[in-house]
Amino acid sequence: xxxxxxxxxxxxxxxxxxxxxxxxxxxxxxxxxxxxxxxxxxxxxxxxxxxxxxxxxxxxxxxxxxxxxxxxxxxxxxxxxxxxxxxxxxxxxxxxxxxxxxxxxxxxxxxxxxxxxxxxxxxxxxxxxxxxxxxxxxxxxxxxxxxxxxxxxxxxxxxxxxxxxxxxxxxxxxxxxxxxxxxxxxxxxxxxxxxxxxxxxxxxxxxxxxxxxxxxxxxxxxxxxxxxxxxxxxxxxxxxxxxxxxxxxxxxxxxxxxxxxxxxxxxxxxxxxxxxxxxxxxxxxxxxxxxxxxxxxxxxxxxxxxxxxxxxxxxxxxxxxxxxxxxxxxxxxx
Length: 334
Prior knowledge:
Rossmann fold, 2 domains, globular
């Protein structure tokens, strides 16, 4: 396990938050829960029926977890009423709300956070990103002052001299498919803030492209150039530059030759991909070929931390994302 994850876990333990795990239909949830409880990383609520808990949690020590079955919980009726109230303008009826709260544990989990009974949610091991984030956006909504919700991975490359001792944020690698220049600039700001929170070092943001400082001409390059200009104007406090090819962004010698005079080139630790194709391919290359630890997709811009998992995740990955969610929840409470 990396120094990054050790640090995040230690911070999570200092001020324990309550995290909800709604995927009680997956063995990995319970394996992760056993580790989280044993290590004291967070207080856990597992949403599910007694049958699901017995089947998928069999043989694991889950002492200390709270189990809630929406079918019998005394909270359910209040959540249904509140969901109707929140979604009234969208035409939500009582019966629709009841069917969501009882039939989709993610809705129940998000209502727990909305009502102040939990601090965050981790889901997605067996649900799509859309199914994980739709309830979050409908119930919890975006954070004040945030233009859009986006997603990133914390990538930790072993024995790596680049980034922050091998730690990077890759964004957006999980959610926004083709951000326009304004959106790309906003995601860069959110990602810089997330890096500062989680890695606790200064973010150095590279706006990535297949071109460095005019080496290629194309509409795709223009988008990154425009996003860079917007970000520099709106967020002058962030160390940010573009457009940069990946090697110019992270390798000091290449940065010095391709982008002399840039204080970002060769030193970047927050990598902004021009679209989701590049971001998703990039993080999976690092994970599979460089044997990097990849934590995410972690969402940023929701009013409370609601995090999605990759469906290929391991129980260890879930533990990591629970710890990250807990640290995000500490920051959100401040």
